Amino acid sequence: MAAHAELDRLQASLNFALDTLRKELDNSQLPPLSQHSAVEHPLDDPTTYLPSVGLFEARRLSIACLGELKNLIQSPLDKSMDETFTLYGVACTDTLIKTGIIDYLSDVPNPSQGVPAADLASEFELDSQKLVPILRCCAANGWIRETRDSSFALNRCARTFIEGHAGRRLNFSMPGFMTMIETIPHWVAESDWKLSRSPEQTAFQIAFKTPLLAFSWIMENPDVLIPIADHLQVFGDMSTPSIVADYPWEQLETPVIVDCGGGEGGLVSAILDAHPSFRAIVQDMENVVALTSSIMEDRRPLYIENGVLKVEAKDLFQPQPRIGNEYSFILRHIIHDWPDKEAATILGHVARALGPKSKILIIDMVAVPNVDATATTSVKSFLLDSDTKRPNYSIPSHFGSASKVISGCSMHMLSMINGCERSLREWETLVRGCGLRITNVYPLRAHTSIIECALDTRALL
Question: What is the CA radius of gyration of the chain?
Answer without folding.
Answer: 24
